[in-house]
Amino acid sequence: MSQEKLFQYAAEAKQFMQEAGEGLVRDELIMRAAVAYGMLERRGMLASDGLSGDARASPRLADDDDRRWSRAHAIALIAHNFEDHPPSTPDRAMLFGHVIET
User: Fold this and answer.
1) What does pTM read for this prediction?
2) Residue ranges covered by each domain of the chain
3) CA 65/CA 68 separation, integer angstroms
4) For 19-40, what is each residue's pLDDT tens digit?
5) Helices of type H across the chain
6) 37-84 tens-digit pLDDT
7) Is the dihedral of CA 17, 4, 41, 66 positive or negative?
8) 38 and 12 Cβ atoms separated by less than 8 Å
């Protein structure tokens, strides 16, 4: 994936956050999220891109604006999860504090 495409993805995600009234995260985190999204997209690992079924069955999901919005939303969510926020609930604190055994 080209850098220009990643820059576009990141700019769309930042605009999404601004328009949604969400707190912005650092540009670095948005770029990291765009790269993570791009890697998943390139490998065909995104199951909810709206085209997993027959696009003609649901024309709304095949719309470029919807795909752009979904991608920007996903990148914004990834970026916000890169930010170091305290857990919002005791349940999340317990979840995030879990020791993963292998």
Assistant:
1) 0.72
2) 3-96
3) 5
4) 998 778 899 999 999 999 999 9
5) 3-20, 27-42, 64-82, 90-96
6) 999 998 888 765 454 444 444 444 557 888 888 999 999 989 988 887
7) positive
8) no
